[in-house]
Amino acid sequence: MDKLDRFFKNVYRSLFDLKFYQKILTAPFSFSLKYLAFLFFVISLLNVLLFIPNLISLRAKTPDFTKKIKSAAMNFYPDSLTFNIKNGVFSTNVKQPYAIPLPKEFASGAKTEKNFIVIDTEAGPDDIKKYQTDILVTKYMVAYRNDNGYKMQFFDDFKQDISVDKDIYLKTVRSLSPYLDQGQKIVTGLIILFILTAPLLAAFFSLAAKMFYLLFVSLVPSLIGRIFNKNINYKKAYQLGMHTTTVTVLISFIAGLFNRLNIAFGQNQIINFVSDFFLSVREANTWIFLILTTFIIFKINDKPATAKIKRKNSR
Questions:
Q1: Helix, strand or coil for residue 309?
Q2: What b/e string do you get for 27-66 counting C-beta neighbours within 10 Å, with b at 16 or more?
Q3: For 298-313, b where at least 16 C-beta lie within 10 A, e where not — what string?
Q4: Cα separation of 261 and 266, whole Å?
Q5: For labelling, which of 172, 196, 247, 268 has a CA lying 20 to 30 Å from the CA of 97?
Q6: pTM above 0.90, yes or no
Q7: According to DSSP H, which parts of the chain are helical?
Q8: What's the CA gap between 111 and 89, in Å, rounded?
Q9: What is the pLDDT of residues 67-84, one digit of tens each?
């Protein structure tokens, strides 16, 4: 608790205490690094905790979603369809072109075209647009849509021949059914794993991004200080920036928090106003950092005090 108490005191001092910045001039770089790393960890942990209600809602919906998948899978394959892939060539027993629609369980609101799968062994990959389908099966390949247009998979890449009819399909679906029945347990495990790992991973990547960002933006207040004969080198300007950036980090966190509230309570005018305000302020984070860091450099004594921050405060 003492370490946590010191951390929050250092957050307060980074926001409001000029004397604290005087001591930063003699503090080891590791002090500021630990401070900034823990700041990002606390914020990441809070973001994860705020996201837990969404995860609980997701877990609660898992049984219904699993039931929907099983129902769709059992009814998806047409009774009369049989197909073979032999020596890289696709063949089927149905009259072509043959269309398979998206299962009705997922058709409502889905981002799909008229058909889900179309089989036409005389077609080419460009015919995927003509048939208004997500997947087009031709004689030698299957073409499917993705974010960049569509991709192709050639059947001669398959290592063995394939033969499928309704009975084989249903047997495969039933063999997978026990895994679907464990859907809620799997989701629960993934949620626990997310809660345990997400704060650390988010803090690590946020810290790395911020440290890289500071490499460049710290140049400006450092150069301005040099022009006006402030005896603070780039390394110390960078270290000071690791504390002045506290305000921009907190602004971003608060903006995100109120944005969530704005989504949840969109009709509340007060929340809308506060959300828009902090989102607007966040757009000026770089300017806030530059002005604040430059101001600190001009206000503190460039001949650092001999008293250093105690090592225990850096932890």
A1: coil
A2: beeebbebbbbbbbbbbbbebbeeeeeebeeebeeeeeeb
A3: eebeeebeeeebeeeb
A4: 8
A5: 172
A6: no
A7: 2-16, 18-24, 29-76, 104-107, 127-130, 166-181, 183-217, 219-227, 234-244, 246-264, 269-282, 285-299
A8: 30
A9: 888 888 888 888 889 999
